[in-house]
Design goal:
By secondary structure, the chain is of the alpha+beta class. 25% of the residues lie in helices and 33% in strands. The strands form three sheets. Strands 1, 2, 3, 4, 7, 10, 11, 12 and 13 form a nine-stranded mixed β-sheet that branches. The protein has a two-stranded antiparallel ribbon with strand order 5-6. A hairpin with a 2-residue loop joins strand 10 and strand 11. The longest helix is centred in the first third of the chain and has 16 residues. The chain is elongated, with a radius of gyration of 19 Å. It starts with a helix and ends with a helix.
Length: 229
Amino acid sequence: MKTEEDYKNGQVLLIDKPLHWTSFQAVNKLRWAIRKAFSIKKIKVGHAGTLDPLATGLLVICTGKMTKQINTFQGQEKEYTGTFVIGSTTPSYDLETEIDATFPTEHITEDLIHKATTQFIGDIEQFPPVFSAIKKDGKRLYEFARAGEDVEIKSRTVHVSEFEITSIEENNLKFRVVCSKGTYIRSLAHDFGKALNSGAHLSELRRTRIGDFKVENALTPEDFMSQLP
């Protein structure tokens, strides 16, 4: 069992973030649990890469002196699995907002789907979703979006090293993608829909790996907290 000194000297905790939790909530709950377990007033705890509330999977959480490694971990390659729904779009590119447009899908074949993935391998230009936490002029983009204000978003170059559609069930496409820091899978869904001359949005997302850290080695927050003294 880890001691107070262990957490202060620095631990890397692999947590499987539940659906609907923010990454901030996960960090806060663990920080509170560690402080309570050892009756300490203060301990540094931070995460190495945000997951949206509608995503599940690997959060790398650092404590104590290991928080200095957060930037290093954030920069590492990430792997995701999930589901794109073709034939419709949403303003947030995922299920945070309602469907705003529908598109034909009759022309989409399995061959077209698999060929379209090749357009997204390598360095690609991507526009972050307007419903994102990126800051512009001191405000987060989602603040502009929720207020109905138009805002100019600049594209960014990201790198996708692997992208495959692993199963096709009617309009639901299961995928696996390996990509660089800063890649928005929601934007990939949106752009993939366009590549099919249709539309698409993200309905499910799970982060399975960051660098050498894997989700199968992660604990749920409850399991982690049950291991504390």
